[in-house]
Design a protein that fits this description.
Blueprint lengths: L8 H34 L6 H13 L14 H17 L6 H16 L18 H15 L6 H9 L4 H12 L6 H13 L2 E2 L15 H16 L15 E2 L27 E2 L4 E2 L1 H8 L4 H4 L5 H19 L7 H8 L3 H15 L4 H13 L3 H21 L6 H15 L18 H9 L25 H11 L3 H13 L6 H15 L12 H15 L5 H16 L3 H7 L11
Helix pairs in contact: 1-2, 1-3, 2-3, 3-4, 3-5, 4-5, 5-6, 5-7, 6-7, 6-8, 7-8, 8-9, 10-14, 12-14, 14-16, 15-17, 16-17, 16-18, 17-19, 19-21, 20-22, 21-23, 22-23, 22-24, 23-24
């Protein structure tokens, strides 16, 4: 017999009300955090009237429970983040705020800073928690420094956040600290020094796995003590901690393996890469280093007293990178490729940093310190760095810069020289003209200025304005004449001409195409067979013949010679064009 239990309506009603109230509060917390997060993303407050309501809600949600470790079931993490984010908004955009609001915000962030970190079952240093309260503590503290209203404890608090066990918090704090370089360069430098120091990871037998912090509390306390000491030495700029050696030359290493750092997510079983070589005891968190260096304001830093030490670090980091992608013990490309993939994100990110730096320095110094060592590498290791370097120069200093610096074209010319020396561009090589891998085809596009299709806010070219194409024509001309026989390169060249066809010089185009077609002949044009390359060339010939009507005699003759060769290749469109109005009166001598 089944017993039926009746629930009193008077008992369930309070439960439903409580659930509704809890759901309402949860929704308010998420909306409040979303409101504040959008303000920081946009960098402005669009609706001042919304701030008063947000402050009122934040103060309502604020309470003593936010100071503790929190209860995951009650989701105090989101509530703490929403309150801290609102407080940070007040400090960052304080012009219309009352002193009472500012004082509340400052006090709320101090309490949030003191709140212990909640580490649940799935916590790890790499957890992504965009609503974490400490992120907004860092933003609020930085706002106080910029406004000149920070108290004496603020630098220590910022350094502590730079050393936070969560990467998302640490990176947010270093971003805020580095953005203060124009206000307090020593604070920014000390934060950078500290963050790079903590990229060095020593083996810790007490660390059980991914759910434990990377550094022990004792190690963090020691690092913070050193940071405060360095910050107090206002006239000194301590050298940045360089990466440990990429590989160590040793003896009798067979059968030994180094301990695997717990935050490494790749196969580390090959502990002894080669006879007499091993990995260093200290592991370098290159991925984390890449993210923090990406926030460095190089334009300002290179004009500061810290510039010599900064360049020393970049030079040391380049040496480490080269040894990683081209190990001294590697016997073949396969061995190099396996170990280079371990630091893939760092290699490409660091190449971008080099590309950013080289046009901020005297060109001779930039080539000697950073460009020449990369160009000296063998093909595959070279492309992994050169692709990112060239792309950074093209995007930052050619597409986006108000004025293209002279050094940009010089650097790209050196990159092109090295690319033209690639083994794939030897006509006698196996699969000559065929570009492969990840970096080589992208480098080919970058050096032909077609790597980006459209960027409306750019200063030139990719915004649709090709009126300054003369800046890059010397590079393009040398490029296409040298290796235009490669189907990949010719396809990139035609893409450039198609995008810039209203500004591309028609006679130069004809000379470039003829140098390729008449110089090699169709049978020797690698990668052209079965493609639309002849048809695309014919389409451009038609465009230029119409655009430049009436055509000068010499131009007409060159374009007609081009059509003759295309007809021999079997292109029917070219045969029809020869009989068009544009070429009816053109005679070849």
């Amino acid at each position: 017999m089944v017993e039926i239990i009746h629930v009193s309506p008077s008992a369930s009603k309070p439960e439903n009300i409580a659930k509704t109230e809890k759901a309402t509060i949860t929704l308010q917390e998420h909306n409040l955090w979303g409101w504040a997060s959008k303000i920081f993303d946009d960098g402005r407050v669009d609706n001042e009237s919304s701030v008063d309501g947000a402050i009122q809600l934040a103060r309502k949600l604020d309470g003593p429970e936010l100071d503790g470790a929190g209860d995951h079931e009650d989701n105090f993490g989101m509530r703490r983040g929403a309150v801290a984010a609102t407080a940070a908004v007040i400090l960052r955009f304080r012009n219309t705020r009352s002193s009472k609001d500012v004082e509340w915000a400052r006090e709320a962030l101090k309490r949030a800073f003191a709140a212990p970190e909640s580490r649940g079952q799935f916590w790890s240093p790499e957890s992504v928690i965009p609503w974490h309260h400490a992120i907004y503590v860092a933003r609020g503290l930085a706002a106080d420094v910029r406004q000149g209203t920070a108290d004496p404890t603020t630098p220590a608090m910022l350094f502590a956040l730079v050393a936070h066990p969560l990467d998302c918090v640490s990176l947010a704090a270093i971003k805020e600290a580095l953005a203060l370089w124009d206000v307090d360069p020593k604070l920014a430098w000390t934060a950078l020094h500290l963050s790079l120091l903590l990229c060095h990871v020593e083996p810790d037998p007490k660390r059980r796995g991914f759910s434990d912090p990377i550094h022990s509390e004792a190690h963090i306390r020691k690092a913070l003590k050193g940071a405060l000491r360095d910050y107090g030495r206002t006239k000194e700029w301590p050298g940045l901690p360089a990466p440990p050696p990429a590989w160590i030359k040793t003896q009798a290493t067979k059968g030994k393996q180094r301990a695997k750092p717990d935050d490494v997510d790749y196969d580390y079983e090959d502990g002894v890469p080669g006879d007499g070589w091993t990995r260093p005891r200290i592991y370098w968190r290159s991925k984390h280093a890449d993210h923090l260096l990406d926030e460095l304001p190089f334009e300002i830093a290179l004009k500061s007293p810290a510039a010599p030490e900064l360049l020393k670090f970049i030079e040391a980091a380049l040496k480490w990178t080269i040894e990683k992608i081209d190990p001294p013990w590697a016997k073949d490309a396969q061995q190099r490729e396996r170990h280079a993939s371990e630091d893939y994100e760092w290699v490409h990110g660091f190449g971008t940093i080099i590309g950013h730096l080289v046009c901020l320095m005297p060109i001779d110094q930039a080539k000697k310190l950073f460009v020449d060592p990369i160009l000296a590498l063998d093909d595959e290791p070279c492309w992994s760095l050169l692709n990112s370097l060239a792309s950074a120069v093209v995007c930052r200093y050619v597409y986006d810069a108000a004025t293209v610096p002279d050094g940009a074209i010089d650097i790209l010319s050196a990159c092109l020289d090295r690319f033209l020396a690639a083994g794939e561009f030897r006509k006698s090589s196996y699969r000559a003209g065929e570009l492969s891998g990840f970096d080589q085809p992208r480098l080919a596009e970058t050096l032909m200025f077609v790597s980006v299709e459209r960027a409306a806010l750019a200063a030139r070219f990719v915004n649709g304005d090709w009126s300054q194409i003369g800046l890059i024509l010397p590079l393009v001309d040398r490029y296409v004449r040298a290796v235009g026989w490669s189907g990949t390169v010719m396809a990139d060249f035609l893409k450039l001409c198609e995008r810039s066809k209203e500004n591309y010089p028609s006679e130069l185009f004809a000379d470039q195409i003829l140098s390729v077609l008449e110089g090699d002949g169709f049978d020797k044009l690698r990668g052209w067979h079965g493609t639309f390359l002849p048809a695309r060339i014919a389409s451009l010939v038609q465009h230029f013949s119409v655009r430049d009507t009436p055509m000068p005699v010499v131009l007409g003759q060159k374009l007609l010679r081009t059509l003759d060769v295309l007809v021999d290749m079997g292109d029917r469109r070219s045969a029809a064009l020869q009989l068009s109005e544009s070429f009816r009166e053109v005679r070849l001598v």
